[in-house]
Backbone:
């Protein structure tokens, strides 16, 4: 059974359908990259999965349970954690305090403050620093760590690279590699196609609110993903599925 099942999802801003008839599944332990140009609907989709945007039509199932209209705090308690674009940390609190906030949902699991510091060693020396004084990369690692503290079954990352220098993005991804070996199911939105292709097992490409490509990474090509990304071909690739 897929750990996350998204079926015919429709999310609107007023009359505007920002996400249209989106369907895809995510398997346990899989790393799914969602790619697409600016305005394709990626953030809207992730926010809908996390319960931050209401769903107009369609369903979202987490481990077989229908969570389509569940409030976001109950989704976290059910095992779905979002690291939002822009991180949303409490900037006057320390790294450790921010991490401990993630624990408040009370889900059982292996993640502890110490394990977060092992996964993100660059945070160790910043343990008692106010997050507002830290670099973008350190803040991003703290935001990911805070989400992990809720012991999620599915971790959703929205553009972890945003606003970071290439060097810092390298550091964040190096930390994520440690996380990827733990078997956590991860959905990530990534603008940088090369990075997405390097880390993900599967890719979903969105264009103008709908899915134009859904494929195992090994069964598609950079050319097919690029064509889907820009909508330059009717056929996106050998495994393409058109909405
Ligand atoms: P980006 O990579 O630029 O973040 P995205 O793929 O995440 O883009 P969204 O931010 O989900 O795309 O936006 C999808 C569409 O919905 C865009 O046309 C955007 O202008 C529109 N949109 C996003 N947020 C709102 C909002 N709060 N109200 C109205 N329209 C919105």
Residues:
């Amino acid at each position: 059974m897929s750990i996350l099942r998204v079926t015919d999802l429709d999310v609107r801003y007023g009359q505007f359908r920002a996400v249209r008839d989106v369907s895809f599944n995510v398997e346990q332990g899989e790393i799914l990259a969602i790619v697409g140009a600016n305005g394709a609907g990626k953030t809207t989709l992730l926010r809908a999965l996390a319960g931050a945007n209401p769903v107009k039509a369609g369903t979202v199932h987490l481990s077989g349970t229908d969570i389509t209209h569940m409030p976001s705090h109950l989704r976290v308690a059910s095992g779905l954690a979002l690291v939002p674009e822009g991180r949303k940390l409490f900037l006057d609190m320390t790294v450790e305090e921010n991490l401990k906030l993630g624990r408040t949902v009370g889900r059982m699991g292996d993640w502890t403050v110490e394990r977060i510091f092992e996964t993100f060693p660059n945070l160790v020396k910043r343990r008692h620093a106010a997050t507002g004084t830290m670099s973008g990369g350190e803040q991003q690692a703290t935001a990911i760590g805070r989400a992990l503290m809720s012991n999620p079954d599915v971790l959703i990352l929205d553009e972890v690279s945003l606003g970071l220098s290439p060097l810092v993005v390298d550091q964040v991804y190096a930390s994520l590699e440690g996380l990827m070996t733990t078997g956590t199911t991860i959905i990530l939105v990534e603008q940088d196609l090369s990075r997405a292709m390097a880390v993900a097992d599967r890719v979903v490409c969105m264009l103008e609110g709908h899915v134009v490509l859904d494929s195992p990474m090994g069964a598609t090509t950079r050319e097919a993903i690029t064509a889907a990304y820009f909508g330059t071909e009717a056929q996106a690739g050998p495994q393409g599925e058109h909405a």
Q: What stands out?
A: The CA atoms of residues 46 and 69 lie 14 Å apart.
